[in-house]
């Protein structure tokens, strides 16, 4: 559980709502249920941080040195080792 509440889509600005939509679409492709993950909602409190996080995620996705399925597996394994709920 987060220490602070994230911004819900109705509270967020138009840029954050656009990024929320992109995140929900991406999560939906991976998990089958389009939901908004908590870290993104929390980072929406600070717009520049949210944009930087998005750029980092897109950069990692664009990297072609490791096959995409292996990147997904490594991400899932890292999340499970640290006890990430999503």
Annotation keywords:
single chain; 86 residues; mainly alpha; 4 helices
Global Rg: 14 Å
Helix content, binned percent: 55-70%
What's the oligomerization state?
A: single chain
**Number of β-strand runs:** 0
3D shape: globular
Specify the number of helices: 4
The helix/strand order is HHHH
Percent in strands: under 5%
Mean pLDDT: 84
The largest sheet, given as strand count, sense and whether it forms a barrel, is:
none
Low-confidence region ranges: none
Q: Please identify the structural class as seen in this structure.
A: mainly alpha
First-residue to last-residue Cα separation: 11 Å
Description:
This protein is mainly α and 86 residues long. Helices cover 63% and strands 0% of the residues. The protein has four helices and no strands. The protein has helices spanning 14-31, 38-43, 47-62, 68-81. The longest helix is centred in the N-terminal third of the chain and has 18 residues, at 14-31. The N and C termini lie close together (11 Å). The relative contact order is 0.12. The model has no long low-confidence stretch (mean pLDDT 84).
